[in-house]
Amino acid sequence: MGKSSPDLFRRRALWIALTIMIVFTLSYLSHQRHEGLPSVTLPAVKPAQETEMVKPVEAEEDMAQTEQMEQLEMMEPEPTWEFVVGRDDLNYGLTDEQCDIAFPLLYEELDRAREHLVNLNRTIKEKDIHVDRKGTYDGRTHGEFQVMIHDGELYVIKEVHGEPDRSRGLAALANMYRAISSMGDARRLIPNIEFTFDIEDIAMEGEHNKERIRWTWARPKDNRWLWPMPDFDGWSYPDDGVASYVQFREDVAELETTFPRGWYDKPTQLSWRGSFAQNGDLRRALVKAATGKSWSDVKPIDWHDRKDLMAMQDFCKFQFVAHTEGNSWSGRLRYLHVCDSVPIIHKLSYSAHYYPLLVASGPNQNYVEVNRNFSDLVPKMEELLADPERARVIAAESTRVFRDRYLTPAAEACYWRRMFRTWRSVMDFEPKTHYFHKDGTKKRRGVSWERFSFRQEKSFEHGFFVEDKIKDEEPE
Ligand SMILES: *[C@@H]1O[C@H](CO)[C@@H](O)[C@H](O)[C@H]1NC(C)=O
Ligand SMILES: *[C@@H]1O[C@H](CO)[C@@H](O)[C@H](O)[C@H]1NC(C)=O
């Protein structure tokens, strides 16, 4: 059967539409390639055979333009959602699909932790989930929380009071609660899980069991049993001068507007303040290496006299910011990462949840790495000062990757939810909502977060002090 002319016309329109789409896609792709970290928001690529089929088309269908446009609209794939900073960075409720599109490289620590167990053919059993028992470690008691999520509700099963202040635990729980309750249908979308987290800087200190599984702020790079969760600084810095993470980001954004030419307008100096009380040898090495240099605004501080203190946001006023580890990781880095400045970081011993994204060389370099004894600080600073354009590009890459993407509050909520799901994928038990007594009666396990965050040890209720009776005791 011969083709009727409307058929022929439709086929030609189809070719034109395809050609336009492919040219558009290719030019978009080649543009994207110059923009750093690959495969973040690439649009769907057309299958190869369609490209081969494209043929030149004569421009004889001008009058049919309207119809072509209609066809184009019909054929366009679903518009690809893209993460837009300024619009989405405070969106705690991105869907799983949006989280994957926006933050494809965020989950490396979780995949690593999971893989470690899978490689050992190991799962998380009910008996793995408990706070430390007496005698299992030396030294001071760590603060710990045993937590359950059930039907999208957050419960604290047990809290152990220990080092350091419990407010860190409350901040983590508040962060989790926000990541859960931002889901419209948390009961369906958040898996039922149970886990334990340790709030100490060095979560495994004093512990005899090398295979102790905990959620922690950071892990030594050679400990594969710990699961890094976003640190409490993502809720708030524990110092009044800094306030909440979100507020700090706003304050820095405002500060940055005072530099009309951005990075170029900042002093060509390296800023750092810190106490020698933690990690003293390492920090003294930094101060020693920088002393007397025209590019140095590096000074130690003593919390007793508080001389030479610098407000956290004021580090951002410099082209270069130095970071040092504290007792273990230091939560200060995520704050320095909000600055449009070049981070100078010594080789790290600890990994926090987003550290796999640090890139020390190549076109996507986003910080400058120096030795732990800072022996190469001077030559590396001199190199940067001699090539300001290279330094500026590193600062720009840092803000693009960290401030404007992977360290946004939206990214952190995605990480929490992925953490719940990844943990669930290696759990082989169902969390129990109740204890069952021998006589057939039952008692709820734990305390809902709403009540827990509201409670005090003693409270002035009904006109007199009452002891809180909501402590959880497992029946013998
Ligand atoms: C993994 O563990 C399961 C249950 O403990 C066992 O049945 C299975 O044989 C193990 N597989 C391997 C490859 O060791
Ligand atoms: C500093 O550290 C580097 C790298 O670890 C090492 O090669 C060098 O010998 C150290 N220098 C001093 C003075 O200790």
UniProtKB/TrEMBL annotation:
Annotated Glycosyl transferase CAP10 domain residues: 189-423
Record field: transmembrane: 12-29
Protein keywords: Membrane, Transmembrane, Transmembrane helix
InterPro entries recorded: CAP10, O-Glucosyltr/Glycosyltrsf_90
Species whose genome carries this gene: Apiospora aurea
Keyword Transmembrane helix: yes
Protein name in UniProt: Glycosyl transferase CAP10 domain-containing protein
Pfam families: Glyco_transf_90
